[in-house]
Amino acid sequence: MKKNFVRVMLFGALTLTVSTVVTSCKDYDDDIKGLQEQVDKITSTSPVSTEDMKNAVEKAKQDLQTQLNDLSALVENPDGEKTLKEKIAALEQALADATGDKAKDLATRLADLQNQLTTLQKILKGEDGVSGLEKKIEELENVKTVLSELIAAEQAYITSGKKDASAYESTSFGAYVNQAIINALQHEGDDTSKWGKIAQYVTEAVQKGISTELSGINNYLTAQYGVKTTLETFVKDVYEKLFSEEAIGKQTQLDNLLDAINAYVSTEEGADYKSYADIIKQIDDTKKQLAALELPATGTFSQAVKDIIKSESEQVGGVIKNLESRLDAEIKAIKGMIQSIVYIPESADRTVNFNTFYVKYSTNGNADDWSPVLNANEVKVNFRVSPHSAVAELIKGEEGKYLIAADYHQLTRATGTHFAIKKIEAVTGEPNVIAVTLDASTADKSYAVALTVKDKGETTLNDITSDYFAAVKENMYIEEVEWVSVNAAASEVAKNASIDYKATGSYYKMTVHSILNNNGSGDVDGEPSTKTKPEEFGISVDNLFSVTFGTTGGGASSFTMNETTGVLTGNAGGMLGNQCQATSTVKAKAPAGVLTGDKSFTQKTYETVTLIDIQKPTTIELADPSAPLVWHKTTQELPLNSEKVDEIKTALNISDFNGCDFKRIAPADVAPVSNTLVATPDIKFNNNSGDLVLEVPAGATYTGTVTTKITNTTGHISIVLSTDVDIKYPAEADLTLVNSNAWDGAKAILNLVEAGDPITAVTAERDLTELFTNYADFVGSGSDGTFTSLGGKIVFSVVGEVPNGVTLNSTTGALSVAKTYPVGGAGFSVKVEAKCEEKVISTKTIPVVFNTAKMNGTFDYSTEGENNDKLAFDVSSAVTRGEGVEVSKALVWKDASDRQLWPSTEASTDYDSSKGAEIFGFTVSFELVAGEDNSSFELNPTTGKLTLTKPGNTQGTKAMTVKVKAIPTSPWGTVEPRVVTVTVAEWGD
Description:
Elements: H1 2-18, H2 29-40, H3 50-76, H4 81-97, H5 100-125, H6 130-159, H7 172-185, H8 197-225, H9 231-242, H10 245-262, H11 276-291, H12 301-335, E1 340-344, E2 351-360, E3 370-375, E4 378-386, H13 391-394, E5 402-410, E6 420-427, E7 430-439, E8 447-455, E9 463-465, E10 469-484, E11 492-494, E12 498-500, E13 507-513, E14 515-516, E15 524-525, H14 534-537, E16 545-552, E17 559-561, E18 567-570, E19 579-588, E20 599-600, E21 604-614, E22 618-619, E23 629-630, E24 636-639, H15 642-652, E25 661-665, E26 684-688, E27 691-696, E28 702-712, E29 717-728, E30 748-755, E31 761-767, H16 775-779, E32 793-798, E33 806-808, E34 814-817, E35 828-836, E36 839-850, H17 852-856, E37 858-861, E38 870-873, H18 878-883, E39 885-886, E40 891-894, E41 900-902, H19 916-920, E42 923-928, E43 937-939, E44 945-948, E45 960-969, E46 978-984
Parallel strand pairs: 2-10, 11-21, 21-29, 22-29, 23-29, 30-36, 38-46
Antiparallel strand pairs: 1-4, 2-3, 4-7, 5-8, 6-7, 8-9, 8-10, 10-13, 12-18, 14-15, 16-19, 17-18, 19-20, 19-21, 24-27, 25-28, 26-27, 28-29, 30-31, 31-34, 32-35, 33-34, 35-36, 37-40, 39-44, 40-41, 42-45, 43-44, 45-46
Helix pairs in contact: 1-2, 1-3, 3-6, 4-5, 7-8
C-alpha cells in the first residue's frame, strides 16, 4: 500500500517537472519515455523512499527557478517587448521610404521582429509565462511540504517501534488508507465475491462461528430433552407455552390474586395487614386452628370441604340447569310469539267472494230458467305475518304447534256455519305472507271473517286474531259471454299469411249480475259487476265455456277459418281485395238435468279483413345521405333516393303515391336508465303531392330505424319500407357564442346613458348582443340565421332573482339598470342560452358590472391646496356661534363631465331642477369621528350641519377640534368617504 502511494507521488512530481519547459515547440516524447522508465523501476525490490521523492521535487523546483530567471531576463533585457516595439516602429518608418532590395531587406527584418514580439507576448501572457512558472513553483513547494509531513510521520512511526501510526492522520496517506479500508469493507449486493476482502472474511468467520455455536446448543438441548431437537424448535415451544391462552389466563389469575392481596396490605391506619408477613402469619395461625378440629377419617380437611362443596354444587347445578332450560324455552317462545296477522285485501271493498254462478238455459220466463254451473267455495286469502319466522310453523297447519281457525260473525241475522281452512301455504317472494285457502261450501250466508291463531296445550303465549274481512256468499248470474281477441282489429292478411284470433292475451269476457228482478220474469236486474274476467271472480271456466269461429261476408271464399283454433288464413288462390269478417260464438256446457242443451251466447263479429299482396320488405336512403339531419321546429319532408322510389312504385303498381295508405310500424321502444318506456316520434314515409318523402314531425329527434307500411289501397298491394336516421339537436360547438372586442372576456361593462334635456334620468345600459362576434350569424334578421332558420332562439335571462331596477329583454338582449338598483353596485350575471324549444343547446354566463368611473363621477374636497380638508368654526360672536358651520361646503360631487351634482347650491343646470345627485341616486350622510371634543358638538347626519351644544357660553374654555366623516352612497358602486376637520378657537365675549 505504501509502495503504491509513493509511486503516485513521485510520478506526480516528475510530471510537474517536465510540464514546465518554456519552449513550446519542443517534442516531449523523449522526456515522457524517460519518465515512464523511471516510474517502472519502482518495484518492491527497488522501492523509492520519501527522501528520494523530496530530492526529486527539489530538483524540479530548481529547474523551474532557472527557467523563471531566464524568462525574467528576457523580459528585462533591452531587446524586450518595449525595445522590439520601438525597432518595429523604426522599421515601419524606414520601409515607408525604401525601395528595391533595401525595401525587401527591411520587410524581412520587420517580419522577424514582429514574430519575436508575438512569441514574447505569448510567453508573457500564457501558461508558459512568468505567472505560470511562479504558480508551478508554488505547487512544487506544496508537494515538498506534503513530502516533509510524510517523512516526519514515517520517522515518528519508526521511533514508536512501528506501533503508533497516528502521525499519518494529518497526511493524505491517512485518507488513502481510509479509502482502502472502506473498499475492503464494501458488501453491497448478494454476490459475496464482489465484496471487500475484510467483509468476505468477517462474514465467513461469523457464519462459521454461529454454525459451530448452534451445533453445540442443539446437542445440549437434545441431551436435556432426551430427544433430538434444535434451538429453533426449543424457542418456538417455549414461546407457544408462554403466550398460550392457558398461560395468559393463569398470569391474569395471578395478577388478580396479587391485586386482591394488595387491597388488604397497607401501612395506613386501619389496614387489615401491614405487610405480606402478617398475611402469612394469619394463614399459619388458621392452619393450626384447623388442625385442632376433627377431620374425616380419610382425606384432609381440604378434601372434605371440597367433597361437601361438590355435592352441594351438583344439587344446585341440577336445579340451575333445569331453570336455565325452562328459561331458555320461555325466551324462545316469547321471541317466537306472533305479533300480528293482517289481512291483505285484493279489492277496494275488502271483500272475498264465495259465489254460485248461474246460466240461463230455458226460456220459460221465470227464475227456474237459471241453472247453477259453478261454485266458488274455495278462495285463497293472503295474510301478512310478523315476525316472518312464524310463517314456517303456520304453514304446517294441523301438524304445527298452533290451532288455526276462521273466526266469523254473520253479516245478516241468519244462522250460518263455519268456514273451513283447507290449506296454508307460503307465498313465493313474500317471506312474511301466508296464503290461507278457505272453504265456504257449507256456508249459506255472508260473514265477517278473521283468522285466529292459538298455541296448542296448556301454555298460551299466542292468542291472536287478524283483522276482519267480508266473506260474501251470493249468487251470480252470467248474462252474456264473448271472446275478446287481441287481434280483433286486424284489417288485412296476405296470401298464405294468417291471423290468430286465439293468440295469447285473448280471453272470455263475462257480463255478470248479482240479482234477478222481483217481477218473476227471471230477468237480471241492476248494474252488472265491474269484474268481467273469470280470474277476477276466482273461478276457472275451461270446463264450462267453449268458443268456435267462423267467417261472414261476400269475399269469405278467399279465406279459410279454422273454427277450433281461430286461425284465419288468406288463400293462395284468393282474389286480392276480397273481404270477410271473422266471428266467434261462446257456448256454456249444459249441466246434468238440463234438457235444452248447451247455451250459445251472442255471436261476436270482428273487424273486416282484406286480402292483400305484401311485397318483400326493402330499404331506402335519403336523396342526400351525407347531409346531417337536424332538429327543426316545423315538420320536415325530406326527399328520398329517386331510383329507389321508382322501384317502389313498380312494386306497388302505381304511378304516384296519391291514394296510398301509410302506416308507421313502431320499433321496439327503447328503455332508458329509468326503465320507463319512451315512445319514439311519429316519423314515417308519407305522400307529398304524389311524391314519396320522409316526414319528420316538428321538434322530433331520433336515432334508429324508421319503418312504414305503404299500401296501394286500390290494387291491395303493400310493401314495408325502412331507413336509418340520426336526427339530432344542433351541436353545442356550433352554437357557442364567441366573445368580441366589446368586452374583456370576463365581464360586460354597462355604460352611462343620459335621457332628456335637461337631463331627467340616467341609466346604465348595454346591448348584450354586441358582446359576441357571431351572434348575427345565428340570429340573422330573426328567422334566417343559421340557428333561427331551424326554429331555434337565443334567450337572455338574469341569473337568480332579478335585482331592483334591472330590465332585460329576453329576446333582444337589451339590458338597462336604473338608479333603484341596490346601493353598492354589486354586479349580477346574465345567462345567454341557445334553445330548441325548451332544450338548451349552449349556455354562456356573463358577469355584469358598471362603468363606475362614469357612473359615480368624483366625490372630493371642493377646493385644492394643503388645507382643503379643513373648516374654521366662526366663534367671533354669540350669533355666529349659534349659526354653526355647513360641513358640506368643504365637499363637492361631480359627474364624469365635471358638472356639479352636490351640494345643490351651485349644482349644474344641465340636470333637471339642478337635482343631479337625486337623478343619479346619490346620497351623502355624515357622522362624527371619535374624538375628545365630540361632546361639545351636535351634527345633523343628513345635512352635515355642525353646531355647538352650548353656543350661548360667553367664554370658550379651550380651543377644540372635531372631525366629520362624509359618507357617499351610490347604486353604481362604492365611493370613498371624505373626512373634514373643523377647528374651533378659544373665545371670550
